[in-house]
From TrEMBL:
The keyword Nucleotide-binding applies. Part of the signal recognition particle protein translocation system, which is composed of SRP and FtsY. This is Signal recognition particle protein. Residues 101-296 form the SRP54-type proteins GTP-binding domain. One of its GO terms (cellular component) is signal recognition particle. It is found in: Cytoplasm. It is an enzyme of class 3 (hydrolase). The gene is ffh. Involved in targeting and insertion of nascent membrane proteins into the cytoplasmic membrane. Binds to the hydrophobic signal sequence of the ribosome-nascent chain (RNC) as it emerges from the ribosomes. The SRP-RNC complex is then targeted to the cytoplasmic membrane where it interacts with the SRP receptor FtsY. Belongs to the GTP-binding SRP family. SRP54 subfamily. Composed of three domains: the N-terminal N domain, which is responsible for interactions with the ribosome, the central G domain, which binds GTP, and the C-terminal M domain, which binds the RNA and the signal sequence of the RNC. One of its GO terms (biological process) is SRP-dependent cotranslational protein targeting to membrane. It catalyses: GTP + H2O = GDP + phosphate + H(+). Keywords: Cytoplasm, GTP-binding, Hydrolase, Nucleotide-binding, Ribonucleoprotein, RNA-binding, Signal recognition particle.
Length: 296
């Protein structure tokens, strides 16, 4: 399970702290050194770890902590607070337009989980009583359109497609017209990905963005790819100014470094996490709950 390694290590450190009663500056230094190693082993970005440990040190060595009756507990609370901050502190919700259609563009590399997530998200939003249209703009991956149509049928959501010989920009343009004429509330656009970031992919996404000015541009990244996910997020954000992140495959055997680094590095919040292949395996992301889960 994600964070198991990190969780176990932090709990060992905390056990030592709690067992000590009064803490010295040396105890804190030793504990933060262990926390640093645990975070690095969990594949958290080096700079993020450095800043994190500095904050823990500064806040823990303050006189209130060392002189309190339960210094160990206080340090744990500080680590909990800072872990929560690292992941963006508050839960970040989807934005909806107050008037007209809300459009959500899903972007990311091939295999990141866009098509699957498009179905999951459509299902979730539909359950909130909204009329959702899925738009198939991944015209390059042979099975992508079919995959979206199958998902649409499964959840009883319409899928707009013009096949794979019309340009994605023309497809979204027609899809928005169709959505307006047929009173859809939400349009979710599944876009194409590549194995690596390239100029052509980015330009195509930029053209789609310029055409529909989406309410949300959500980047799908695979949590299993660790620090690569963070680098990918930086590139997409630079080009498209994304509005949020969906971290997929959090159910896999990942150390969790991406979840703990991506918001710090990009400044963009994780809005959802994918926790499996089923249509219902999408969860809203709560930094405080995730921090509590890590600390056990
Ligand atoms: P796309 O190329 O970005 O559209 O990616 P797909 O939606 O086709 O997903 C690629 C693979 O990842 C598929 O086999 C999905 O079932 C799988 N997948 C997507 N999201 C998750 C997730 O949250 N957990 C797991 N375990 N698998 C996922």
């Amino acid at each position: 399970m994600i964070f198991d390694g990190l969780s176990n290590k932090l709990q060992d450190t905390f056990k030592k702290l709690k067992g000590k009663g009064k803490l010295s500056e040396k105890d804190i230094k030793e504990a933060t050194r262990e926390i640093k190693i645990a975070l690095l082993e969990a594949d958290v970005n080096f700079k993020v770890v450095k800043d994190f440990v500095k904050k823990i040190n500064e806040r823990s060595i303050g006189s209130e902590v060392l002189q309190s009756l339960t210094p160990g507990q206080q340090v744990i609370k500080i680590v909990n607070d800072e872990l929560t901050n690292l992941m963006g502190s508050a839960n970040s919700q989807l934005s909806f337009n107050s008037k007209g259609i809300t459009s959500i563009m899903l972007v990311g590399l091939q295999g990141a989980g866009k098509t699957t997530t498009a179905g999951k998200l459509a299902n979730l939003i539909k359950s909130q009583g909204k009329k959702v249209l899925l738009v198939a703009c991944d015209i390059y991956r042979p099975a992508a359109i079919k995959q979206l149509q199958v998902l649409g049928e499964q959840i009883d959501v319409s899928v707009f497609s013009l096949g794979n010989s019309t340009s994605p920009v023309s497809i979204v343009k027609s899809a928005m017209k169709h959505a307006k004429e047929n009173y859809f509330d939400i349009v979710i656009v599944d876009t194409a990905g590549r194995l690596h970031i390239d100029e052509e992919l980015m330009n195509e996404l930029k053209y789609i963005k310029d055409e529909i000015s989406p309410t949300e541009i959500l980047l799908n990244v695979d949590a299993m790819t660790g620090q690569d996910a963070v680098t990918v997020a930086e590139s997409f954000d630079e080009k498209l100014d994304i509005t949020g992140i969906i971290l997929t495959k959090l159910d896999g055997d990942t150390r969790g470094g991406a979840a703990l680094s991506i918001t710090s590095v990009t400044g963009k919040h994780i809005k959802f996490v994918g926790v499996g292949e089923k249509i219902t395996d999408l969860e809203s992301f709560h930094p405080d709950r995730m921090a509590s889960r890590i600390l056990g």
